[in-house]
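Supplementary Note 3. Input sequence used for the single-chain structure prediction.
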Amino acid sequence: MHFLFLSVACSVLVSVLLKLAPRRGIDIAQAVTWNYLAASVLSLLVLKPSLQSLQGGHTPWLALLGLAVALPGIFLVLARAVRQAGIVRSDVAQRLSLLLSLTAAFVWFGEQANGWKLAGLALGLLAIVGVSARNGDATTPTGSSWGWLLGVWAGFALVDILLKQVAAAGTPSTSALLVSFGIAFVLMLAWQLQRHFTGASRLDARNLAYGLLLGAINFGNILFYVRAHQALPHSPATIFAGMNIGVVCLGALVGVWVFGEKTSVLNRVGLLLAVAAIGLIARGTL
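The predicted structure, written as discrete structure tokens, is reproduced below.
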């Protein structure tokens, strides 16, 4: 189970780094760019994916390109959500994205619905309402945090749906991640060079270092989650539930105790409903 704990810790640490970035004067877009350089190199060296599977005519290049655009896009949205809504609510919204991806699995991928999963979906929708409710904290003066939370919710669901499309085409997940990370880095680097030469935002070594650290932790989240499934191959529901509930709970503790984030009664009810919803959905996969 230590792989699962490490994966949960890395996931929350990503949110912590995004929370701290503005305070350190870090350009988020640059950091996210270098994050994908680190993730690409580590994927190549550690996971050692085979690229031969991408040479066939059935490679879902459209879905891979979609991932390459969606992954950095949702990273930027998550950074804004963490800044405006806090780690507590952002991590819950991120984990509840499984509601949309599960619905897509029912509609497009032929997954069977059952009472547990449907109950989890219902509770999850209520949790989204509670978590997205404005908490009256002064750190969200515009009251627009709910929009960024919904963006996190929808964005991570889109990424999961695209990954399902890639898997359905028979492309190994490690190969798909490497290609998506690589294309994402190239696209983001082109954007940063444009910003640099137009004077919008000069490239800075601090952003490079911060981005490489972000990428290492982001990759750690993926690696340890994969290792957890490999260590407990007959307990996928346990890993699924442990990962999602662990991130929600640890994110709440870090957000409240370390950063002093304030939550309303509705937010706290939404958090509890999120935990219950994830547990019901996991129960439905047994």
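The mean pLDDT is 88. The chain has one domain: 2-284.
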